[in-house]
Amino acid sequence: MFVREVMASLVKNSRKKKTVQIELETYEGKFVVSAPSGKSKGKSEVQDYNSKGIEHSLKMLKVFCPMLKHKNFLIKKIEDLKLLVELMKRFEGRYGKFGGNVSYAMESVFLKAAAADNGKELWQFINDEVNGGLKPKMPMPIGNCIGGGVHSGMIKGKKPDFQEFLLIPREKTFSRAVTVNFRAYEDAKELLRKKEKGWRVRRSDEGPWMTSLTNEEVLEILKSVAKKHGLRIGLDIAASSFYERGYYKYKNKELIRDKVDQADYIERLIKKFGIFYVEDGMQEEDFSGFKEILNAIEKNKSKTLIVGDDLTTTNMRLVRRAVSSGAMNAMIVKPNQIGSMIEVKNVVQFCKQHNIVMIFSHRSGETMDDTLADYCVGFGGQFIKTGIYGRERLIKLRRVMEIERELNK
Length: 409
Ligand code: 2PG
Ligand code: MG
What we know:
Layout: E1 5-12, E2 18-26, E3 29-34, H1 54-68, H2 82-95, H3 100-117, H4 122-130, E4 140-147, E5 164-168, H5 174-195, H6 215-229, E6 232-236, E7 243-244, E8 247-251, E9 254-257, H7 259-273, E10 277-279, H8 287-299, E11 305-308, H9 316-324, E12 330-333, H10 335-338, H11 341-353, E13 357-361, H12 371-379, E14 383-387, H13 391-407
């Protein structure tokens, strides 16, 4: 694969914040990838840009990108990114770190071009390597329906303490699942209007409805739309975001829970509302708290997914620890948490060996990039977590639908 040109620029994400975009031109065409950005980040995530900021990363890229021009890369599998990674590392040795968002975008755009060079789409290129080219099983979407926590930081006053109230279809096709989720999201709007005095249409970071109801009031709404549409319900508690010095500090309603109370509370909610999916139910360093919840649901023969996100940050060391300590049966994969596609592949293979369900996830700050969809299908993720509403979210859902159509031809 012969590099004709590589260019870096800054574009705005869904929060109107700057993020990096890399464009690569080869004889096969032009390829573009831009990086998403998180707000409720795990402590162990790699830094997204150089410690001097995104502008500094861009300055470094303006020097680095021309150095790639006219170079030839032979990329037949993900590991072949090594040459590119080495060049970046050597450059970083002299000028400081690019940051995980830069390496994510750079490696991804090279993979896209490499796929085309091999006459494949990105999902195919990865599926051929990771899944021996077998026809991939379509994921199901996990859609953010009602929001709270730090993602609703722009509203003053009350909001649910949990970050995301999620809808998870169980349909034969991905496209049907997307339609069902959207209908349920619209129904949730009407229920919010009925239940909350003075409610008006407002959406937070990833497109979910904003509300000042409590966690449990929102769960009642979710339960009722889920029943009507045959959906499962999920939560991203993002517990680290309201954990302070040993305690979970709830604001709506005001209450302080210690570790034992928190685990009990989550277990009770799972039972009461028949919750199928709980992400980051405990703060990110509490592997034993996660384990307590997982043990309790297994004792009840429940199939609820106990999901690590901030707990694991797509980092092999933490994933190993979480699995060996029995803390989770599912995890979030966000490539820019680790900023290395070789690491993502290692994590995926480890999850497959240990029957850990994989959820490929967007970030709260997103762009019009749909690479996540190809990664989810190619790596064999069982779920893709995005919003239900908003063009940066829909573009990823549409891409999965496109792949589904292609596969069913
Ligand atoms: C999460 C994500 C995406 P952020 O916590 O799962 O919903 O949020 O991108 O802000 O880390
Ligand atoms: Mg999360």
